[in-house]
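Subject: Sanity check before I submit

Could someone independently write out the structure tokens for this chain? I want to compare against mine line by line before I put it in a report. The sequence has 248 residues.
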Amino acid sequence: MTGERLSYPDFRQELLFAFAVYVEGDFDRRVYPTDVAKLISRKFQPSWIKTGAASLCESEFLLLRSSASGDSNSVFDNDVTVFEHLRRIGQDNKPERELYSLTEKGYFEAAKFGRIQGRVLESEMDEFLAEGGPEGLLVDSPSDSSVIVKIDRASDDFLKLEESVDNALHKLSGNNALMSDPDGSRRQAELKAAKALLLADKMNVSLFKKIVIPALQWLAAKVGDEASGMAIQAAIALVITWIAANGG
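---
Independent answer below. Compare away.
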């Protein structure tokens, strides 16, 4: 559908769906609608972004949280990610832009819209994360994102790599203590995204590295027993070796 023109009502729905994907369903994340709109592939009027976000807010699908202007110390709000801190700092000398967060009502509405369109909200969240998430939208240099390799599924190195990711995902998902950690669900999503990249015929090695290494390092630090920790460290070494051998 890329290139087709949206009507305003359809844009408003697409913006809400994109918003839910962008924040990965997190009700606390505060983001700029203009950043979220980058996920919409069909044509629309740029002036619709601000109006659409305000309209979604009036319908209680989004919540207006704060403005980019005001006290300069507000950019260090603990409720936003490092990525959002950088985005705010980059806007210091630009026109005011408002930050919004997703509401529970908005999440359910986005999921409902997705079902009508034959799209699964949670699956698109995983795909967005696999493509680098918000940071992936900012990749400007081809050297940062163009390390693409064809996957040889019959090779011993790849089979060991796939097994190491599967084992790490299984260990995390099956551990209630780890999953109850504030970062547990995000690390699980990262490992699922890494697994999704491994299932493709070709892989962006740079994105795989960006996703899988932090997740494995977190797991190695959090896992309880020494044997499991050593196994995860071995998996990290294997992954790094594979990435380096494939240009990452």
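---
OP: Matches mine. For the report I'm noting this point. Confidence is low (pLDDT under 50) at residues 68-96, 138-145.
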